[in-house]
Design a protein that fits this description.
Elements (H helix, E strand, L loop, with lengths): L5 H5 L1 H6 L11 H11 L5 H10 L3 H4 L4 E2 L6 E3 L2 E6 L5 E6 L9 E6 L6 E6 H20 L21
Antiparallel strand pairs: 1-3, 2-3, 3-4, 4-5, 5-6
Length: about 160
Amino acid sequence: MAEPFTQSFRSLIPSYFDQPWQPEDGLTREELQEALRESGVQIPTALEDLYLAVGAVEDLMEAYYFVWDPDELEVEDGYLLFMEDEDEAYTWGIPVDSLNVPDPLIARRPNAKGGWVPMDATVSEYFMDYFAWVFEEVLPALGTVDATGDVDPDVVARDGSEK
């Protein structure tokens, strides 16, 4: 049986790469469990499903901001940190007291000033909106996707490197 959010995250591959989802697009459960043992953190179901569905696709996990590998996750100031922008100006996190919620609300912290600001979105909502923003607005403006919104294979390889 698929996890609650897996199908939504798997749909990102055909939506933005014009190819079917493949099992190797995600981390295996064993890879994820080992990485989480290394980091020593617990993650909510929605974040787990993201890693299991597409955690091995650099084009997604490092599309514009950087979703941390599961072995890099850490807890700081009462938040599980999971993503950072390209300039390291902002960090996204989940309050540790809501990690047992399957799809908890997230917050963002400006690293220079420190205070956490609620994003008014759950993990799954935020990631689906984030990837739509990246692939439908940001990357087209940078010229790395074609006119249909798919990653341009003449510019970006599946592993995320530029050709």
